[in-house]
Every structure is written in structure tokens, then in C-alpha cells.
Sequence to fold (1472 residues):
Amino acid sequence: MDFDDTPEEAAYRAKVRDYIAAHRGELMSVSEGGRRAVDLDAAKQHQSLMYDGGLVGVTWPKEYGGQGGTQMQQAIVNQEVAKAGLAGFIGVIGLGMCGPTVIAHGSDDQKSRYLGRLLRGEDVWCQLFSEPASGSDLAALRTKAVKTDSGSWRVNGQKVWTTLAHVSDYGILLARTDPDVAKHRGLTMFVVDMHAPGVTVRPLRQMSGVAEFNEVFFDDVEIPDEERLGEVGDGWRVALTTLMSERLSLGGGGTDVGTGLDAAAAHVAKRIGELPETRQALVRQEFGRQYAASLATRYTGYRQLSAISKGAMPGPEASAGKLAGTKTGRALADLGVRLLGDEAVYAITAEGDGRWQNSQAGLPGMAIAGGTDEILRNVLGERVLGLPPEPRADKGMSFNDSLRIGASE
Amino acid sequence: MDFDDTPEEAAYRAKVRDYIAAHRGELMSVSEGGRRAVDLDAAKQHQSLMYDGGLVGVTWPKEYGGQGGTQMQQAIVNQEVAKAGLAGFIGVIGLGMCGPTVIAHGSDDQKSRYLGRLLRGEDVWCQLFSEPASGSDLAALRTKAVKTDSGSWRVNGQKVWTTLAHVSDYGILLARTDPDVAKHRGLTMFVVDMHAPGVTVRPLRQMSGVAEFNEVFFDDVEIPDEERLGEVGDGWRVALTTLMSERLSLGGGGTDVGTGLDAAAAHVAKRIGELPETRQALVRQEFGRQYAASLATRYTGYRQLSAISKGAMPGPEASAGKLAGTKTGRALADLGVRLLGDEAVYAITAEGDGRWQNSQAGLPGMAIAGGTDEILRNVLGERVLGLPPEPRADKGMSFNDSLRIGASE
Amino acid sequence: MNFDLSDEQRQLAAAAADFFTSAASPGAARASLDTGAPIEPGRKAMADTGFAAITIPESAGGGGGSVLDLAVVAEQAGRVLAGPSLVTAARAAVLLEDDADRLPALADGSAAYAVIEETGGPVLDATTADRFLALRDGALVAGGGSITERAPIDATRGLADVTLDDAEVVAKDGVARWERALQVGQVVLGAEGLGTASKALELGVDYAKQRVAFGRQIGSYQAIKHALVDAFVGVEQLRSLVWWAAWTAEESPAELPLAAAAVKGMAAVVLEKAAETLVQVHGGIGFTWEHDAHLYWRRAKVDRFLLGDDVEAFDTVARLAIAGAAK
Amino acid sequence: MNFDLSDEQRQLAAAAADFFTSAASPGAARASLDTGAPIEPGRKAMADTGFAAITIPESAGGGGGSVLDLAVVAEQAGRVLAGPSLVTAARAAVLLEDDADRLPALADGSAAYAVIEETGGPVLDATTADRFLALRDGALVAGGGSITERAPIDATRGLADVTLDDAEVVAKDGVARWERALQVGQVVLGAEGLGTASKALELGVDYAKQRVAFGRQIGSYQAIKHALVDAFVGVEQLRSLVWWAAWTAEESPAELPLAAAAVKGMAAVVLEKAAETLVQVHGGIGFTWEHDAHLYWRRAKVDRFLLGDDVEAFDTVARLAIAGAAK
Fold:
């Protein structure tokens, strides 16, 4: 057991580090990338420069412009990018989800038109799956694609929680092409031009006040049949590729949820002295519990990384890390807010610090986005512990029939 | 709003108190009644004497030997019995559950033979419902009653968690008389003579080491058809009478679960000074939370009592009190154990006190007996909040068919 | 025993519900947060209806009612996130109880008071106040103040930093009254919290009956159902405690300090749980600005720190219970 | 990075599993509790297999292994509630590490040690010990002792009150070694707890797959499923912490104090949760003397207080983390 790189990993890490150091001045920092209104051109240039260094599409096959590297190399790149304080990629959704889906299911024509531009950051992509009426139950989505006489598809409906839609050039769109079969069977995947007539993007403000997501409306949007991804009716299987790629791109690794453990420790260290002795004991008790839990999450992530470095695929176990991380992240945010004392009822402290309040307002979303806590517990219970699934009331029902459930309310 | 008796209640209470005071020397105290091996004759005499004072069967109709009184009068009797430190009745199950079932569903012959002796404590009764394979799902019970050529019933099977079975003369027995119809429809209720050949009672030791319950085995036990309670196949409806009576006999009222709030406060007051200041703060924080929660449970019980005194029937809301009471009872037991310091790892302290350890070992059972926490939450969710029920996998299935579920495991 | 509201109190609750549902709403709370729109229903309407003056004697122009009467109204105010808080009204009524000049002005709304905490810090309803009450060296004082507004988490609470100017002495020995005012305030805060939690629970239950996932209404899933039940149990527990504590204010004052602390702590915990459950049950939609869920959540996150926090309240409960047991 | 057990460690775990499942069991734990039967596998078998001497250098007759090696074995011991504890073996091995006479006797099992806590109180494995180690005025001492047996909650822990007789000084300045021995002991205690919790979880999962209620296996209900998942998440979190903490003992000693405290606290919490879930999932049957569930529950209720309690451990974690951050 050790926490060191193998010689190969160390050599790769050195190469990555050197490239970043050599181009540090031209690359975008995390604070620039974190601004609400990102400079789109700068973000694209940042990704392009990283691509030139072989730091984008690390695990993608070489034939599509990738590096043909390992998951561990990708993890090393992620670590070095974080260490250097570099911004993430504007192509994050494209690289992690859309691209791999095009590689697995796209036509040769689609691959050649899209993948290179996607890697170099020339096009930004988004993923159009979730809908207002289908969150956890993704396959219940209602956006319709109807085949026209000319052979193209006409799309109507609404998507929601779409990251980056407001700056995207393309999206992968899951739509219902047959409502008369069971809900999983009537879906088809498309590549949609986000600049096409009838596509409207509206930023979606969250409870924290920030708009990280968008709603996307489709009004008679025309998609050529050549932009279909996979067969008609095969959309659910195609979507599973996307979701599996998402899990790979997240990949575990024990990163902190929320404001981060070190920031929390620094905050406690700074503030605890202001409290009476007895109150300090209460703070230490809570902080000690969360600190231990955070370490446990971190080292559980390292176990996953080690497994990945031996060639394992990240499995549903990774959900355990999200569950545990969300829980401690929330508890640390709460502790952080409480330590503000009188300032805890304002959104920003007198010193201008709103990190803990923002974290408090943002973390309930962590227990919802990317699989609610409840869904993750089902997944772990059924796929890891082997417990029997819930009975499905809509089993064997056509999508149209299933719409009647609950309609009597 | 007030916490005082009405003039009528006060007069009744005075009468009860006077009778208890006048006979205090002849009545059994709670410590005598609480011994593991109860003196059965003394317990029966205690009940008989209380009956003579009109303090047994308070709400039972006069025609069956009861007092024709109100639920509030019953609550007053309960309070005065507790205040005087008197033992409960050996006939507790008979009075609370079996008797009301005989009143509602018994023949005239059964009523005249059983009810008077039951009230006076001459016969002890038990309730034979739960089985090893049917706990929460009571209607799934397997004990069989088969009609013989002579018209009587032959019973085979096993019951479990039977309070007082080892000293009982009679029991009400729920058995399956038709396995080919849906599980709720094939049940029939009987009065069984606990001294009949083929009835075997075995004490059931709990994790605390104490045996409060019994297992009861039926091997070809013969029951005359005259001892049927209600119609053949109507046992589920009869059982619901019993369970409703149980709820009435528990009746809420805000009594503490576990060792009791005052005992907990006294224990904390005695021990807390031994701890360092910072540790005292942690104890106070936990104790304060549980103390407030216990008061809330107590006053929620008073709200229910007030409703009962106005003629309301205790509804499923009473389950909220059990849920909350069990939770704080457990937390207070845990606090009690922790305050023992070094002694907390032994079953009895050097001073000979094992209350907190016993409470710790007994309270997990509170979250299971009389409806698990999970079942109570379902009941509250569905019957009070009006949330939709779980889908039932065995809906419309015959009992025999439903036995196959899970059998493939 | 009759531990229940009277018919008059039920009528009062109904009247309060009518008023508050028409005069305030989560939508108004959102607008306050978003654009700085005035808090609804606002001081004037609260004074005009007489709800803010329930506990002021009739001789001074008030309602001559009990703390329990006020609690019943406060619950209705809490359901729609109304402001300013009846907590402020209740505290000021105690603090000015023998002040023949100031009390009528409080009752008719011509003076808009807020109360500065003994330990300083944010002042509840400061943004709508023009007079402030404070404890200075054991004396109760009143005066004007300078307000520093700050970015709110929940705008309906009208919190701001306040510096007291030109204070006059209202009562030389004000400590006992100050304590009682704080305790009555904690009870009324608990009553508002009861209303907020209770409404949050109802919204969660309603959604769980409508929303379908995997072919079933989500309220049929135990994860959702049991979370809502736990919130329900908390709300009912809190209701009992609020009624009892409000009752002690006039009928059993020796119990008020413990009862008020118990309500303060329990309300913080129950409301926070109910609001978090509301957000979680709604999934993604509950996490949007346009949905009301976060407004209940904001109220919960702020209220827990008002008039002392839950940790302090439970410490007080324990200290008093231990002192009682040691006797 | 290779944060995983080695092949040798996996083989060691398999060998330990073979031994412990044949030499100990919850049934033996029940018999100890019920009739005072000897704790299984007992000192002799633990010494004969060499498992108790893993961390003693080969030169003194031990296995020359690491704390992580011992942790891997301790997990298997914990699964079947074996006794005496490897915690005692691990602590004694550190305390006697440079004692040329006593260490070989510890290794071959000819001396049966237990460790008296600095603050006094119940001594782990005292009922099977004939020699005791203690810290007296900063010196490490060894000697015989008088044992007072007491009614156990979990008989396998061999707890008793001990008065030290005839103590000889082993090391004059024993404080640093004492601390390290305690920390190593906490790690091994956590490893045993990991095994116990992990087995409790498996028993709960197995039952949830078999037991049918209302026409469905109870493991299909979210209330049961999610409780088991939470126990599973806890077990996996604890496993990572145990491995890391054990690794620090030799590879990163500066991190050991924090890591050991984190394991101690986390093991207490995770094991208690897993054992309570085991009882609750089983319903009535889990609450009977004959079922194994309560034996896991008893271990959990006792272990949380050994080598300091969870509250003390988390306080230590916080103090060390705050000190680290303040640098």
C-alpha cells in the first residue's frame, strides 16, 4: 500500500505539470472560469491550448483525436489542473458525455464533423435529457419527435437543468418517438443544433439566486434524420452510454463536496477562539465528527482511484461517496454558518465573505442533482447489496397509458 | 385551556382515590406486580378487589358487568393507579383486548360464561395473533384450523410474542380456515382453552435476558365450534375490533417511554457534576434536546386526552406519540448509560443499579413491538397525511399462492 | 383537563388566516428578497387589524388578550411568511407594559418599535422600525437608532444592524421584565415557526400526492412518506409545546422560562427539518428561485438564530431541568 | 497510488477467516454471556496461530508484520465476535517492544497480558490475563493484579476491574510509547469493529432478502433498503479509514494520532448503527436471546466506550485538525 505514483504515473505527471507551467500565463485560472459571465472566447482558447498539450480527451481513442490514455492519467490531469488552480473546460459536458456517446453511436459523418471541434473547444455541447415531469424517472420524458413527410424530425417539448445550454452549439437530445410502447422503448437520441430556429434557452435561477442551469424549449424544431444518434427506438440504450460516461468522467477520487475540508478547518481555527469554552466543546464535537467523515470519504475515493489505476471500471459504489460527501458537506456548511455568529443571518458577512451562506444554499441541490439521495440509495441497495427492487406500477404499460397514473388526483 | 379536572371529573377522581386509600393495604403495589414471577393468586385478588370498587371495566357496558363509564374516567383511574403505585392488572390483555372482542362478536353463551370471570380476575386471558412468519403482516399467519367430521376444529401451528400465555386460562386465537382465498378472507377467530391438550407454552427470552413473552404451540388442539368468535372467514374483521380496542386501552395520555423523564433528570443532576465543564456542556445539549422532546410528547398526550374527554375516539395520530416517545426514550437511555462513565460497560453498576443498561437493552424492542417504527410511519403517512399506499404484490392472490413469493430465493 | 384551544381562539385563528392569506404570501417574501419590495402585510396593516396589539390591555388601546391568543394568530402569520414579526410586537408590549405614554402609541401603530438584543447583533424588524428598545446597565431604555441594512437571507425578518441614539430610560430596573419579554418573544417565535413548518409540510404532502415517478405517486415511496411523517410528528410535537408555553405565560409563570426555551429550541429544529424536507421532496423544482420552497427554507435558516439559537435554548432547558431535579 | 491491500494481506485475511470462523462464533459469545463459558478462541489458540504476535519482531518470536497486517486479521476476528481482543496484543507489543525478556513471553503466549487504562476503570481482556501493564507517574510498569469480575454486557471483551499488585518498572519514561500503544490499539479496535459491523450488515441484508411481508421481500421496502445502504456506506467509509490509519502507524507516524482518533470515533458510530439496523431489520426475531443479532448489538454498545469513547475521540480529531490548520 502506498499513496505514491508508480514510475509511469510519475513521468506522466511531470509531463503534465511541465506543460501547465510552461503555458501558465496563457491559461485561464479557476477564478476567471468561475465568474458568472464567462468570457466564452477565452474559455475556448484555454481548452484549445490544453488540447495542444494532450490534456484534453486523455482517454479518448487516438483515431478521434484523443490520447488513448488511461483513467488514471485522466485522474492525474484532473489533480494537476486543480493544483494549478486552472479553470475547468467549457467543453466539460461534451468531453464527459456527448462526445463518448457520438463515438459509440454516431455515424462516420457525425464523428468527423463533431469530435475534433469538440475536443479543441471550437464547439460547446450540452446534454438535453431531464424534463420538468421526468427527473429521477428519466425515461418518462415527454419531449416529442415526430417524423415528417420529408423524412426529418419535428421536435416539441421542454428540457430543464441543462448546464451550458446558453453557450452551446450542439446538444444531444433524448426525445419520445413512439408513445404507444413501454416508456423505455419509445425513445430516440438526436444531435440538435442549438442555433436552429425554434430553440429557446432560458436561464433557470436556483434558490441560491445563481443561474447555473437552463430551461430549453423546442417549438417545431427540425432535425434532419442524419442527426439521429443510433436507431429509432434505441434511445434508452444510447442514453445509458452517456450516463455511464458521466460516471467515468466524475470518476470518484475523494474530492471534497462543498467548501472543502481545509477551508472548513481554517474557518474553525479562525473563529473558535471567539466562543466560550463550553461552546467550543460543542463545535469541536461536531467538527471532529465531520472531519473524520470527510477523511473517510477522501480515502474511499483513493480506494476507487487505485482500483481504476488497475483497470477497473467505476461501479455504482461511487454513489456511496456522493451520499457520504453530500452529508458531510452539508454539515460542514452548517457549522461554517453557525461559526459566523451574529453574521449568520445575513447573506454576506461584514468582511464580505458569503462562502458559508452560499454553500448552505447550494448544498441542498447536491442531494438532488445527479441522482437524488433516495435514488442513489435505491441503486446501492439493489445493485451493490443485491436487495430486491421496488415493484413497478408501470411495468409493461405503454407510455401513453402510464400518463394516466395519478391523473385522477 | 386548563389542566384541571371538570367538577364531574374531580368528583370521580375523589371517589377513585378514596377507594384506593381505603384498601391500600390489601392491594398489590407496582413493585410486587413487577417481579418476574408474579404471585398469580395475589394478582387475581388485587384485580377482584379493584373490581369491587368499580375500578375494573370502567368503560365496559353495565350489562356485562362493567361501569358504563367514559374514556376519561378510565384515564383518571389509570392516573390514580399510577400515582398510588399500584400494580397493573393481570387481566390487562383480557380487559383491553379479548373482552371487548367477546362483547362485540361472542355468542350470548360466551358472554355469560367469560366476561364476569374475566373482569373479576378469575380467568386470565391472552391474545394469540402474531406468528414467526407474520409480524407486521399479521394477515399472513399460518396457524391452521381444520373442521373435523364432528363439527369441531383442529388447530395446528405456532404463535409468538404472547404476553401472559404462561398464566392464561383462555386466549383469543386467529387461525386460517381457508388457504385458497385471499389472505384476509380465510381467517377465523376462536376462543381457545389454554389448558386444552396439545397447547404448549414456552417462555421466550429477549435480548435483555428477560422473558416477558411466550411462544405457544398448537398440536392437534380441538376447539368446539361453539367457541368460534364471529363467522367463519370473518376473523380479520373480528381482529380489527381487537386491535381497535388495544388502541383505546393504550389511549395515549403522554406517559413516558422507558425509564421516565423525572428519573432521567434526577440521574443527570446526580452525575453531571462528576464531569469536566466542557463535557457537561455536551451532556446538557443532548439532555436539553431530549427533555424538550419529552415534554412535547407529554403535552401531545394531554391534547389527545382532552379530545377523548370530549368524546373523540383515539385515532391513528396516537402512533405519532409512540414514534416520538420511543425515540426520546432511547436517547435518554443512551444518555443514562453514558453518564455511568466507567460503569457503562457492565450490566449492573457497583451500586447495584442496572436501570439504564436494562432500558438500553429493552428499548430497541419498543421500536418493534406493537407496530414497528416503519409500519407506524406507513400508517401515519397513509391514514393521517393521506399519502398513497405502497403497491401490494400479493393483491388479489390466494394465501397459498402468496406463499410462493420469495420462495425462489 | 382541557388542553385545547377555546372556540374564541379558533375563531380568532380563522380571522387571522383570512387576513394573512390575503395580505401576505411567499410571493411577497420573494419580491422583498429580489427587489427590496416592502415586507407584507407591513406595520400599518398589522396595527390596523389589531393583531399586533392583542396582548396590550384594552385600557391602552390593545386587545386585552393572552399570549396564547397571540400565538394562535402568529401561527397564521408564519404560514404565509408574513412580516414584521409578532415577536417584536409581543416583546415591546411586555417591555412597555406600564408606560402610559408609549404603550398606546405601540398599540395604535403610531410608533414602530424594534428590540435590540442584550448581546447586540442583528435586530429583528429593524428595517421597518423608527424606535428601539434596549437594556443598558440593567435599565430599560428607548430611543431612535441608526440602521445599517445588510444583504438578507430572509428579507421578511427585516434584520439590520442598529446603533442606538438618544436613549431615554423607560424603567430603571428592567432586567426581570426584559427576561420575560424575551421568553414571551421566544414563544411567539415558536408559534410563527409552527405555522411555517406546518405549511411547509402541507406543501410537501400535496406535491407528493401529485408527482409521479416510475409509475407511482412519489408519496407512496417510503423514503418520501417517512420523511414527511417525521416532519408531521415534529409539527404536532411543536404545536403541543407552543400551546403549553403560551399558556404558562399567564397561568403558570414559574414554568415560562423552561417552556419558552423548549419552544425556542424545538421550533428551530422542527422548522428546519420541515423546510429541508419540503425542498428534498420537490426534487429539482424545489430548488428553483420561482418555487416557494426556498422561501420557507430561508425563514427556517434565519429563525433558528433569532432570540438566541437552538444550542443556547437547549442548554437553558437542561440547566433548568437539572436545577429542578436537584431540589 | 496503490491504496489497496497486497496479495499477501489478502491471503492473510483468508487464513484468518478460516481460523476464526472455526474457532469462534456468536454462539460462543452467547454461551460466555449465559453460562460464563470461556471466551473463544481464547488466549492459547490466538498465540498458537501466531495471529496475536503479528506485530512482534521475528527476533522475539513474532510475525514481524505491520499494524496493517494485524488490522486485516482483526477484521476477521471481529466478524465472529472472537476474544480476547487483538487490541490487547497490539498494545502490549508496542509497550514491551524493547523488553528482551517479556516480549518473547508475550509472543509465545506464556504470559497473558492486559493493559490498565491511564484513568483506571474496566480493563479489556482482564478476565483471561495474569499480567498487567500500566502507566504510573510516567513510568511503564508491569505486574500481577487482583481482578473483580462484574456482570458483563458483552462477555467476549473479558472486562473486569483490576487492582495492580507488585509492579516492576519496564521503562522509566513510558509516556510516548504509551500514547503510541493506545493509538495502535484504537486502530486495531476499529479494525475489529469494521469486521463486526460488516458481518452485521451482511446478516441484515440476507434476512431482508428472505423475509416476506405484504407479499414482498422486506428488502424491497425503502425503509429497510435505505437503512441497510446507510450501514453499508458507513462500513465502506470505516474500511478506508482503518486501512489508512493502520498504514500511518509505520509509514506516516506524524498522522497516526489524528488517524487513530478518527478511526476510534468512526468505528463506534458505524458499528452501533450497523448493529441497531441489524436488530431493527429482523423485527421481533432480532430481539430474542436465541438470535445472534443482540450479540453484535452488545459488542457495539461496549466497544464504543473502550480506549476512550467516541466523544473524546472526535474532540481529539478536532483539536488536532484545528492545530494543523492554525499553523
Summary: The CA atoms of residues 124 and 306 of chain C lie 8 Å apart. Chain C is about 55% helix and 10% strand.
